[in-house]
Backbone:
DNA sequence: CGCGGACTTGATGTGTTTCAAACCCGGTGG
DNA sequence: CCACCGGGTTTGAAACACATCAAGTCCGCG
């Protein structure tokens, strides 16, 4: 609760047309003409680990396209604990509910350093009235959000702690079998297990050579071994 | 897999304008004029318990508005098991992905006898191009689906088996504190626990007088007691 | 009447939680 | 430079909840 909110730094105005990840992002299929409809600035923002993009219940002023890094969507439990309900990476959209004028349902926190584009709600509404393209994209994003949510429930909420951890690594791993991981407390909040169990499992996988920690929380993984663990008991 | 698909019976053509639950359903804010855009029949269908509205991977021909009864959305696990990822009731929409032309991501199965309206995909696409109203509703439905998914994860995937069962009852209970419940196997699939544990917990709650089984799988519940259990250990 | 399916119950084992303590490491200040 | 602290991680031992395997019961139904 007392986490510093410092760490959100303005980086400049976004140049959407020339954006490197546009084809996978919300503005994917906007046309030249569509861009002229944007009359509010889209800011590029750098968010430091631990800082929030927005908080649950906030007035929805904007939604965010993640350009790099990792964002966790957190929901707080009545008992004070927290549960991470989704993880967002490059190309994903955070705070979609802002497009509907609904208050944010989660708190979005940067896990790794995050580069993001802040798109004001007014821009979305304007575009979504004027162009079918964006409307389709919005629907697709919602669809994607549901799929992710279901996947979280099925993949990360089922089976033994070891299997869950293995599946989590498999969802985070890159093409070189490397993986930027995060704190054990967060692992627990994602998988619905305790911090200690998360730590035990990760430590054990390191000992077994399935994981190799090149730097703190940076792992090289044995993909095959992880897959075997993912469905085993 | 071999569940009979019998039990889906045509009941007639829907009269959307006069529909009793329209204000809560997908067609909530369509105008008189909008209805004239519907050129394909909307069927009213009765689905018997255990029968499917559609199967995972099916070509998306239609989406469904649930008018009464209870529908489960099921996802199958690699190991052959299954997990129920959402429960739908009167006013809810099943198979939203059809509006996007995406294949169904779940299998939708009637738990209690279900009365449903089958809305062909073409109708949705036509309407969604012609009227902002429906478009907004579609977005809202997606939003709702995500909220449900998150609630499933947080409420039904956290805490002890007893707490989860209590929360499940609280989500199903009606204003008279009555509750149409369902098989223990399904309870397990919803909560991520085994059939036996589900049975044990329900049986124990019956003995404690928290639940009173008036007829098979029809319960009168002590709401206060359930709420106490819901966050307790 | 006897069968099958869903529910209940018991005994046992194991995985996970819990409570505690030790550890490692980067940072701070003497 | 080193002592010291604090947060995150690891590890241990004991308690507990849940899974598992295996009967047994209670229906409805042919």
Residues:
């Amino acid at each position: 609760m007392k986490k510093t909110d410092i760490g959100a730094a303005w980086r400049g105005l976004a140049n959407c047309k020339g954006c490197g990840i546009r084809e996978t992002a919300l503005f994917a299929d906007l046309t030249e003409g569509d861009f002229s409809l944007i009359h509010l600035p889209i800011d590029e923002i750098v968010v430091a680990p631990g800082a929030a993009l927005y908080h649950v219940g906030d007035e929805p002023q904007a939604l965010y396209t993640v350009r790099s890094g990792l964002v966790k969507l957190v929901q707080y439990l009545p008992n004070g604990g927290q549960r991470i309900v989704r993880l967002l990476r490059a190309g994903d959209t955070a705070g979609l509910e802002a497009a509907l004028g609904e208050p944010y349902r989660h708190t979005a926190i940067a896990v790794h350093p995050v580069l993001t584009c802040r798109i004001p709600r007014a821009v979305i509404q304007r575009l979504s009235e004027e162009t079918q393209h964006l409307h389709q994209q919005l629907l697709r994003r919602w669809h994607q959000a549901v799929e992710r949510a279901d996947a979280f429930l099925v993949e990360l909420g089922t089976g033994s702690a070891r299997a869950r951890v293995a599946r989590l690594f498999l969802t985070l791993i890159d093409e070189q079998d490397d993986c930027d991981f995060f704190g054990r407390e967060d692992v627990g909040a994602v998988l619905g297990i305790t911090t200690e169990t998360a730590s035990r499992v990760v430590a054990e996988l390191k000992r077994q050579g399935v994981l190799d920690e090149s730097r703190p929380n940076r792992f090289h993984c044995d993909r095959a071994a992880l897959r075997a663990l993912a469905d085993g008991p």
Observations:
- Residues 160-161, 193-194, 196-197, 200, 216 of chain B lie near DNA strand D (CB under 10 Å from a C1').
- Residues 1-6 of chain B have pLDDT under 50 and may be disordered.
- The two ends of chain B are 37 Å apart (CA to CA).
- The interface with chain A takes residues 75, 77-79, 81, 83, 85, 96-97, 99-100, 102, 105-106, 129, 132, 135, 138-140, 142-143, 145-147, 149-150, 152-154, 157-158, 192, 231 of chain B (CB under 8 Å).
